[in-house]
Protein: Phosphotransferase family protein
Organism: Roseovarius gahaiensis
Amino acid sequence: MSLDLDVASVEAWMAQTLPGVTGPLRATKFSGGQSNPTYRLDSPGKSYVLRRKPPGVLLKSAHAVEREFRVQKALAGTDVPVAAMHALCEDEAVIGSAFYIMDAVEGRTFDDPALPGLSADARSQMMGAMCRTLAAIHAVDPDAVGLADFGPDGNYYQRQLDRWTKQYRATQTDDLPDMDALIDWLGQNMPDDDGQRRLVHGDYRLDNLLFAPNAPQIVAVLDWELSTIGHPYADLAAVIMQWGMPNTPDGRGLAGVDRDSLGLWSDQRFIDSYCQNRGLSGIDRFEFYLAFCHFRMAAILQGVKKRALEGNASDPARGLQLGAYVPQFARQGLEATTR
């Protein structure tokens, strides 16, 4: 695997910026689908992780490592498990793009939400940890941790519906009546703003969580690139949406899995436990939030498909593969409206 990292420049910068860091550094690039390239840095005394923007010309708001660094630094000392942040470098002259350095946290990641190879009790406890950690994120007061300006004011769902409808129309390649109907339904059933202006992760799912090496405990929440100030039920509904996908490497869902026999929680148990952890009596009209998450994912994947068709994707074949899910997300979003 190509490293694509000037390790000598990183080592020199860290020696100046982080007193006590001694070389030589050994860098290893993490595999996987991170949009921000990520590397483990091993020094004689300690191990770190470097996250950088990809080199080259980028969309203005894309690959925001500066936001990732800021939000995780703000969460230090809260009940949300995050790696310790050390330093942000916005000087592109060092390695060609902005990057930040954080602690390396030892742990386990899982791609398959069915958690094969674990006991039923361990699976249940891990889902409980996943639920408690999500509630902990949403319990954070943005003002109290210095994130009051981390996202705009106003009705989060109306803002998101307008944004992603515009994006979808700009990248549309096929006539999808289900998507048109879903957009109309969301606009006609927009809930009133209930004042819940909280930190949202934006991509909260099993494979973005780091579990302790030998315990069903989350030691770090990863990949905060899409985090913002918004409405917490979008994160919750996104978890339920993901589980409705096929149990395949692409789908990473639980459709067709006998959850009860495996110790995996039902959708309703996860929602009820989340409400209990946040002190809520329940969630009214959950079908809206679930339908919204399907709509947003369909719009995102439509953009991926469009870039692949135009030859602008880093992996066009993969882009087309993901783009094929657009009709399914639109259909399941419409089905969620009658859930």
